[in-house]
Write a structure and sequence with these properties.
- This protein is α+β, with helices and mostly antiparallel strands.
- It contains 20 helices and eleven strands.
- The protein has a four-stranded antiparallel β-sheet, sandwiched between helices. A three-stranded antiparallel β-sheet has the order 1-3-2, covered by helices on one side. The chain has a two-stranded antiparallel ribbon with strand order 8-9.
- The longest helix is centred in the middle third of the chain and has 24 residues.
Length: 452
Amino acid sequence: MKREWMELEAFDWRYSAAIVGLLQYFRWLGKKEPEFELTEEVLRFPAELINESDYLKFVEYKYPEDMHHLVIEEMVMLNQPSDEQVKLVNEKLAANTILKKVFKKVKYDGTNAEEILALLNENREEIIRETYRNKVNLYRNYCNTNQLFEGSKDCCRLLGYYVDMPKKGKALSYNFNISNFVARDEQIFDFIPFAFYGERDFFFINDNTNLKLLEKTNSHFDFKIQEEKKAARDIGKAVDARQIFFEVLIGAESFIKSDVEIITKNVERTHFETLFLRDSSLKILRSLAEKAGEKSIYQCFCFKVKITDNYWLDIFKKVTDAIVNMVLLDDLINYLLRHNQDNSYTYVISQLIRLNVRIKEEKEMDKGMKTAYACAKRVVQKRDKVPDNKLEAYNKKLTSALTLEDYDRFCQILLNLANYAEESFDFAYDLFEDFERNKELAYTFVNALRRA
């Protein structure tokens, strides 16, 4: 019987992710070329390799931490389970809807392992399918749960692409003509979830100029993410997938050398998002790998600030978003300057200022920043001439004028301070000429105008 071969190209990120997911599945099956063919542009494979039974076995293999039945299986095999282990098994027997259904008439007492294992093995595929389909960080995070294993439909199964066609189909397109609506669906999109990695925030790198490179890039990231997650858990640290992702990206110079598209999916959002990392952003990110003492620079941004009981300002997210979008960090610098009463943010602010300079590509500003820093420190050292209360008052006035963007007032206060401290502020001429362009000089001066 002649084999039916399927052929996939990376038309867009959906096909790229499906290819990466399929390759993981084929490798798990133990398939090697020429059982499937991977070139730089095309993945060819026999359609018979895809079947629901193997798919579900792969799901069980790939997501063991999400499969409650594996814990049940392991615990009931113990010869003399403790009371805590018996309690854990019974909790897992009711961990989700499908497990409650299968084990509704059974309770583990430490002696009925065979009964539980028999039920588990009899219903294993259904347990895996329903767990995978409905868990918020698995299939449900990416696709319409009703379309798992379904053939191609009128619209794409992915969240953000899916539309209820009978109810809303006519309102989709120009002049309400449904023929204008394009939302191609493929059964192989069921493999897209396998290409994403993370925890609550999930990422896929669409480095699709070369399919072999696409697989290599995402395999490397998958390995590093798993490694970092394990290291975090081993020391009892909360896992921040976004932070881990960018940490890995910062050190990815050996295999990501140009602009790249990154697709993200957060479990709390009903759509996918795209980050386009330009080469200029990548260079700035990688500059954060430079050492400052024993730590890399980026580590100083790895914290959150409590704003209200329900909202924390994620500094690392703010910084990486700004670098990705090449947007200045003025708002964050202003906030930290206003709340730097105990000098705890001084170093962080200095690094944010440097990032601003890199984003603006003002390579000549380093000299002016050094001058502004030196001027501030000369004032700080004049304890007899400028006592603590005066220094603090000038700092507050300058900070207020700067963060409120009252640049004329800032320059006036700066002149008053120069007269009071009997110091010459050479950097100020650049501010008088073009304050907005040289704002980092003002930030540097104010940030350094502090006594420990």
